[in-house]
């Protein structure tokens, strides 16, 4: 066995965790596991992102970014954490004052990329080179590379194919119901929503436009589901909005409950806003903006002000 190697770790390239104690929250980094106070309890959590508390700007988005600059003692940080062994709907931004410095912190050790094969070219790299530039040795003609999609808000990575039994088992045992890795990795981007007389705390990520997402409160019209970043815009909209029920046909009524049928092709904006809203509470929902093939059925409760949405389901035409 050569020097620098460990049993079961060829070449000594396996990443190992480092457990240590810290003296300041500014020493935390992306990917570390620390202890935070939550509901009068002490829970271990993984740090997913770090930002400046005053400016609400992300300082460190990934583990490869530069570490925090703790030269300014006046800076206060917030950490977006995922509590271990808890559902991801409890993920939240926590101030550095809730960090327990008396508990050990687990830092992940970065892998040594140079030891994973050095200058050897992988089969995947060779294939990629052949597809983009051709091969002189074999005489194959250069091929046109596939276009790259940039609409990240509507695109998700290709999914692994599951059998029905495997998918049910994965949904039962997994902490998240999302099968797409790119969706699981995303952080919750809304803190609070105000809809009618209710204030709601979202559970999961929803791809609202960036200018609306990272605001203290997102205001949503309970009748047309349009969303606004500040109270003034929302109040101005409410004086002009004429809707008092979902924009569809009422197909059922009993007492104060009604069902409205909405065609996704005729009411694209409303149905897309409905999908954005529902994504805040359905982690397994894969959102697409093509709502044309679907019919939406909205359950509402009626009072003197109109019909208020309380639930919905959809089906293909």
Description:
The protein has 6 helices and 15 strands. The protein has helices at residues 123-133, 164-173, 181-184, 210-213, 231-240, 268-279; strands at residues 17-20, 33-38, 41-52, 57-60, 77-83, 92-95, 105-108, 193-195, 198-200, 218-220, 227-228, 249-254, 257-263, 294-303, 306-316. The strands form 4 sheets. Strands 2, 3, 4, 5 and 6 form a 5-stranded antiparallel sheet that branches. A 4-stranded mixed sheet has the order 9-8-10-11. The longest helix has 12 residues, at 268-279. The chain has 317 residues and is an alpha+beta fold.
Structure summary:
This protein has six helices and 15 strands. It has 317 residues and is of the alpha+beta class.
Strand content: 25-35%
* Poorly predicted regions: 1-13, 127-159, 171-181
Helical coverage, percent range: 10-25%
Elements, N to C (H/E): EEEEEEEHHHEEHEEHEEHEE
Helix/strand/pairing class, anyone?
alpha+beta
On the 0-100 scale, what is the average pLDDT? 74
How many alpha or pi helices?
6
Q: State the distance separating the first and last CA atoms.
A: 65 Å
Rg:
25 Å
How many β-strand stretches? 15
Q: Tell me about the biggest sheet? A: 5 strands, antiparallel
Give the overall form.
elongated
């Amino acid at each position: 066995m050569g020097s620098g190697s460990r049993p079961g770790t060829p070449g000594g390239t396996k990443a190992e965790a480092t457990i240590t104690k810290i003296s300041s929250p500014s020493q935390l980094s992306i990917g570390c596991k620390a202890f935070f106070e939550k509901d009068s309890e002490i829970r271990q959590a993984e740090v997913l992102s770090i930002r400046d508390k005053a400016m609400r700007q992300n300082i460190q988005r990934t583990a490869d970014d530069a570490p925090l600059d703790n030269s300014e003692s006046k800076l206060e940080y917030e950490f977006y954490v995922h509590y271990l062994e808890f559902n991801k709907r409890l993920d939240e931004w926590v101030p550095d004052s809730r960090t327990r410095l008396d508990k050990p912190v687990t830092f992940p050790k970065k892998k040594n990329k140079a030891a994973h094969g050095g200058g050897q070219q992988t089969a995947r790299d060779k294939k990629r080179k052949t597809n983009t530039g051709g091969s002189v040795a074999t005489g194959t003609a250069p091929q046109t590379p596939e276009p790259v999609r940039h609409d990240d808000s509507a695109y998700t990575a290709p999914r692994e194919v599951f059998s029905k039994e495997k998918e049910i088992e994965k949904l039962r045992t997994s902490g998240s119901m999302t099968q797409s890795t790119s969706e699981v990795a995303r952080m919750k981007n809304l803190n609070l929503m105000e809809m009618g007389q209710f204030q709601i705390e979202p559970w999961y990520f929803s791809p609202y436009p960036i200018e609306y997402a990272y605001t203290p409160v997102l205001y949503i019209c309970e009748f047309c589901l349009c969303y606004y970043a500040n109270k003034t815009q929302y109040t101005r909209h409410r004086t002009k909005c004429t809707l008092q029920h979902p924009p569809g046909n009422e197909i059922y009524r009993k007492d104060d409950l009604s069902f409205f049928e909405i065609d996704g092709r005729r009411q694209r904006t409303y149905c897309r806003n409905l999908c954005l809203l529902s994504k805040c509470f359905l982690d397994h929902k894969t959102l697409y903006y093509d709502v044309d093939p679907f019919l939406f059925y909205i359950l509402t409760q009626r009072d003197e002000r109109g019909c208020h949405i309380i639930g919905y389901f959809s089906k293909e035409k």
